[in-house]
Amino acid sequence: MRERGYPAxxxxxxxxxxxxxxxxxxxxxxxxSTQGNVIAxxxxxxxxxxxxxxxxxxxxxxxxxxxxxxxxxDQPPLIPYAWxxxxxxxxxxxxxxxxxxxxxxxxxxFTLTGIPTFYGFLQxxxxxxxxxxxGQCWTLCVEVSFYALLPVWAWxxxxxxxxxxxxxxGHSSVDLPLETAIELPERTLPVRPKS
Length: 195
Prior knowledge:
With 195 residues, the chain is mainly alpha-helical.
């Protein structure tokens, strides 16, 4: 199944990217979010951009699974899904991690336990390594965990509640985004093939 883009969400993606950028550039590195600083109220919560990215990712990646289920089609194939996710993150992350480790002499990365931990997106599962290596990449580890869980969750929901997605979810906070992902008319969020 080919990935599809939503131009209407591009502006939200830009807001998220700018939020993360300014949080780190001004709030973190320039200490703009420290208490008593004049700009602190403006940059202190810009880390919300990470949450926006997670929500967008969840919506865009889960939607094909939900649509297939809603339309009575088979679940999207796992291998192309996993391959696209891996190509999107792994090469750039491995290059950045290797480069940063060599140039900045990051401790613990090029060790017997560090290689599988940091190159395998496992750093978030230990308090000792959670913010080591490329510390900001904890978000990638969370994202990779989500990528791995998503097809399992979609399969599970399909098996537990074959005819009724609402039966499985009840009235949870997942309901609205899920209903939106299924029922939102494509003319509301124009779809374009990714180039």
